[in-house]
Design brief:
Chains A, B: It holds the Pfam family RS_preATP-grasp-like. Chains A, B: It is an enzyme of class 6 (ligase). Chains A, B: One of its GO terms (molecular function) is 5-(carboxyamino)imidazole ribonucleotide synthase activity. The structure is a homodimer of 356-residue chains. Chain A is α+β, with helices and mostly antiparallel strands. Chain A is built from eleven helices and 17 strands. The first copy, chain A, has three domains: 85 residues, Rossmann fold (3-Layer(aba) Sandwich), CATH 3.40.50.20; 61 residues, Dna Ligase, domain 1; 167 residues, D-amino Acid Aminotransferase, Chain A, domain 1 (2-Layer Sandwich), CATH 3.30.470. In chain A, the strands form three sheets. In chain A, strands 9, 10, 11, 12, 13, 14, 15, 16 and 17 form a nine-stranded antiparallel β-sheet that branches. In chain A, strands 3-2-1-4 form a four-stranded parallel β-sheet, sandwiched between helices. Chain A has a four-stranded antiparallel β-sheet with strand order 5-8-6-7, sandwiched between helices. In chain A, α1 crosses α10. Chains A and B meet through α1, α11 and β16 of A and α1, α11 and β16 of B.
Amino acid sequence: MSEPLAPGSVIGILGGGQLGRMLSVAASRLGYICHIYEPSAAAPAGHVAEKLYTAPYEDEAALRAFAGGVDVITYEFENVPTSALDLLESLKPIRPNRRALAISQDRITEKTFLNGLGLTTAPWAEVNSEADLRAAVEKIGLPAILKTTRLGYDGKGQARLNTPDDIAAAWVAMAGAPAVLEGFVAFEREVSIIGGRGADGSVAAYDPGENVHREGILRTTTVPAKLSPAQRSDAVLLAAKILNALEYIGVMGVELFVTRAGLVVNEIAPRVHNSGHWTQAGCTVDQFEQHIRAVAGLPLGDGGRYADVVMENLIGEDVEQVPAILKERAAQLHLYGKGAWRPGRKMGHVNRIVKG
Amino acid sequence: MSEPLAPGSVIGILGGGQLGRMLSVAASRLGYICHIYEPSAAAPAGHVAEKLYTAPYEDEAALRAFAGGVDVITYEFENVPTSALDLLESLKPIRPNRRALAISQDRITEKTFLNGLGLTTAPWAEVNSEADLRAAVEKIGLPAILKTTRLGYDGKGQARLNTPDDIAAAWVAMAGAPAVLEGFVAFEREVSIIGGRGADGSVAAYDPGENVHREGILRTTTVPAKLSPAQRSDAVLLAAKILNALEYIGVMGVELFVTRAGLVVNEIAPRVHNSGHWTQAGCTVDQFEQHIRAVAGLPLGDGGRYADVVMENLIGEDVEQVPAILKERAAQLHLYGKGAWRPGRKMGHVNRIVKG
């Protein structure tokens, strides 16, 4: 792909959730058509796409049909199996590239990559046995958290260690999967930066947002974040460093801890990010259009912010607030078309313009 | 329909052009699904809708299938044949109602309705023969314009009369169709007001926009329009009067001439309107979402404007400016997915925020 994608071209999106849904809408604004590939039966993105493939990532025929109908492939979800990606990549370009995916799929690869760029992460150690874990606790200290290196591994995932007595149980909780022990970071606040890199190598970052999590789920993002000018520019430079090192094409979310000693990278997500939803209310070109622009080889849009915004996720029963939200002035509602709420399920979000 | 439409409900849209496309996107934000009915093969709205019916308005089986799959029906296009509407209305609610459609489908009915509300239109006279036309010219004076009472009648439509010598040819140009002679209005500027009325009877109007037409096609809308405070409130009151008189549910566009003697109503459109596209860049809730909110029985959104915007239509070869527009700061581009440009074809629009 050396030329920009012509209007009317088809963008394939792996994953049919709310991110795919908002990507498809953004693509339509630029005159593109989207096809969605999603293993689960319910695919909110399918409501606003020209075509929806409902098939597992192991279905080679479906993957071939999907690839055959599109001009470029992107994703809203980073845990696409390698075998599916290998096949798709042999048929059509994938943006962002495989390296970004590979790095974000494995916590150890990711931390190694970030440290290699001179960026600070939480202290960490690889853990492949209970003995490793004991050594890691010795090195990093407690409290700490043990995580499988790959996400979504059989639904198992994380175990917190407060005392050495927790070691045996934590290791059992990993069910034999490769893991990483991460030390706790004493942070002042959590922020994230949404950066994009175009096919021409240009980089544009949005103003960092300040995030509040509850029970491991993002609740609110507020812009502007409470950051000093130096912290703000550190965040932008750090995002640009990651994007350039990966020769990345698309939008990426970088979660950061703000500490007295500087910014610590928590995690990167090679896709549009929940903490960037505020850009729909505060920017001329939002993160979804920015991602599509990059993937299509168009110039990146201006990332400038023209409003102060608080984005609030509607999680589970929060969706029952919708009738009240619809009556609010200056509240921009986004529902994801997911049917009945379940605890922890992201049902929508609302962007409130607090200063226009 | 006494209850608001539940999320996940299906809205049927008659017409699959750019207005249907942007309505479908707005509906998705509120958690609804859209099905599109469009006779022509190319239907840009189908790119961002769950289902597209491609069938003529005379296809009773297709109309029944369409109605069977939706909870409420709306339209992006006012010239839907009466027979199709009769059938659809027997199956599902149509919003806005039939009366609004009937009025806007016939220039004489429309003018009679508007004058009956005490609103000023251009001077006009009914013309069903050459003799009628001579009498009408006598009464109204020249120059004047002769128009068939119904739009899109065999592609014939309008004839301008500058001198009495034009009478015979003008009547021939109507091909025997009922017509109306309209006197010219000496106007200072053209504006339009986009108003919405909810199922609860509440009314909300956007700030009037100032329109520039060329060759009968809207080129730009600028907000704010150059209007005095009195003219501005006259425009809002006039729109509210029309909406209330029709017990209208949805968004309507009202085109106005600004004259020394006050506002003159040029035309009403019982749907979202090209001159309201600026609301996508200048309001929390744009005209498309406002229409969907009304049709779904939700509370209307706040119509407040938080930016000065110039909307420019991209007509025909204007679309070749897209690469330059993509590089502009503060330009929000909307392409309609229509394929190759043709002279006079609306290909997209751009909203430029001139003061945020």
